[in-house]
Amino acid sequence: MKRSIGAKTLAYPTPAWLVGTYDMFGKANAMTAAWAGICCSDPPCISVSLRKATYSYANIMEKEAFTINIPSENYVKETDYFGIASGRDEDKFEKMGLTPVKSDVVYAPYIEEFPVVLECKLVQSFELGLHTQFIGEIMDIKADESVLDEKGNPVIEKIKPIIYSPERSYYGLGELLGKAFSIGMEGIKK
């Protein structure tokens, strides 16, 4: 039997991604965001929802670009810090010893130390209440050679992305359960 627990922001899992932007002075900034995901296949697009109060909100509105930086488990402390501190008050990159790199595709920085980066141009934004959802077209993806397979595709077990639980906890990945578009066909009579 299921019990009603009310309307909450509970979806499992959510990503722990860092959204990279430049401010009006050209200073690199990034913030941790969990309300995000792929939202279109063609053109490839991603959505991320931010509160207007965040420093990154104004940066995206002004520059119409952002990056999505996918950290590995090795950077869980840095990921958490980028969600606590504000770029208005300090240089988070300097404080955490991370390297901002200027994208050559969009006007936004990405984080050199993170294994996968999506470079996005803003195509739409929607006010949804407390948050504004930004839709970014993925213009390019950069990935460290160390996380790619022989065909040049990122391998999730090598990336080791951080997963965020809405109860305010971070997790790593679990084990492989089966191949998509395949395991469901097992046992079906032909």
From TrEMBL:
<feature type="domain" description="Flavin reductase like">
    <location>
        <begin position="10"/>
        <end position="164"/>
    </location>
</feature>
<dbReference type="GO" id="GO:0010181">
    <property type="term" value="F:FMN binding"/>
</dbReference>
<dbReference type="Pfam" id="PF01613">
    <property type="entry name" value="Flavin_Reduct"/>
</dbReference>
<protein>
    <submittedName>
        <fullName>NADH-FMN oxidoreductase RutF, flavin reductase (DIM6/NTAB) family</fullName>
    </submittedName>
</protein>
<dbReference type="InterPro" id="IPR052174">
    <property type="entry name" value="Flavoredoxin"/>
</dbReference>
<dbReference type="InterPro" id="IPR002563">
    <property type="entry name" value="Flavin_Rdtase-like_dom"/>
</dbReference>
<dbReference type="InterPro" id="IPR012349">
    <property type="entry name" value="Split_barrel_FMN-bd"/>
</dbReference>
<keyword id="KW-0285">Flavoprotein</keyword>
<comment type="similarity">
    <text>Belongs to the flavoredoxin family.</text>
</comment>
